[in-house]
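Quick one, probably user error.
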C-alpha cells in the first residue's frame, strides 16, 4: 500500500528561549550561515515532508524576519506560552495540524543539528497509518525525531506538560513504538550550553 506525500507533516519545535545559552533563542543560532531553524525545517522537507509546521515562541518576530520559513512554504505557529516549556509547543503544533488532512506528524527539535535528512527519512518511512508510533533510536535508545500517527495526537497533547513533551505518553506505550535505528547516520546531541556552540561549526 502506498501513501500520498502530504499525509506525514513535519512538526519542528523551535520556541525555546535558550535559557542556558544566556537567553539566546536557539532558532536564531547560526548554522552553515543561516538561522538554525531554517536548517532544521529544511531537513524535514528534504526527508519527504511536503508540509512543515514550525512552532516559534522566544523572539518569534525576529525569527520570522531572519529565517526563510514562510517563503519556503512552512506554516509558522506561534506559541504564546513557550516559557512554560516544550510541552506547550508540542500542543500548539499538534493543534495546528487539526483539520489539515495530515495522518501523522514527524516531530523534531531545532537544537539537534546532528540529526539530518537520512535519520528523519528513515523514521518517516515507518508510517503505516494513523495508529503509527515510531521513533529514531541511537544504539537502541529512543530519541528524535518521533512520528505520531493522528490517533495519538489528543493523548500526546493531554500528557504534554512542562519540558516533558511526549515522554510520559511514549513511556506508557513502549511496546507499541517502532524503533528505527539511526545511530549509523546521525548524532543526537543537543545545543544547550555555550560549550555546545562549537558543534555548530
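Nope, works fine. Designed sequence:
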Amino acid at each position: 500500500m502506498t501513501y500520498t506525500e502530504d499525509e506525514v507533516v513535519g512538526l519542528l519545535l523551535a520556541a525555546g528561549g535558550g535559557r542556558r545559552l544566556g537567553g539566546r533563542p536557539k532558532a536564531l543560532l547560526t548554522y552553515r550561515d543561516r538561522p538554525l531553524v531554517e536548517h532544521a525545517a529544511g531537513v524535514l522537507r528534504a526527508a519527504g515532508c511536503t508540509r512543515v509546521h514550525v512552532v516559534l515562541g522566544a523572539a518569534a518576530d525576529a525569527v520570522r524576519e531572519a529565517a526563510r520559513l514562510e517563503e519556503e512554504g512552512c506554516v509558522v505557529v506561534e506559541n504564546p506560552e513557550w516559557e512554560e516549556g516544550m510541552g506547550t509547543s508540542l500542543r500548539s503544533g499538534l493543534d495546528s495540524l487539526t483539520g489539515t488532512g495530515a495522518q501523522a506528524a514527524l516531530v523534531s527539535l531545532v537544537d539537534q543539528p546532528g540529526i539530518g535528512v537520512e535519520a528523519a527519512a528513515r523514521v518517516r518511512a515507518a508510517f503505516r497509518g494513523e495508529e503509527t508510533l515510531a521513533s529514531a533510536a541511537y544504539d537502541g535508545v529512543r530519541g528524535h525525531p518521533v512520528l505520531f500517527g493522528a490517533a495519538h495526537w489528543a493523548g500526546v497533547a493531554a500528557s504534554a506538560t512542562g519540558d516533558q513533551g511526549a515522554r510520559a505518553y511514549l513511556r506508557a506505550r513502549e511496546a507499541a513504538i517502532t524503533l528505527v535505528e539511526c545511530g549509523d547516520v546521525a548524532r543526537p546531541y543537543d545545543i544547550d550550553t555555550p560549550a555546545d556552540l562549537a558543534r555548530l561549526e
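The longest strand covers residues 141-149.
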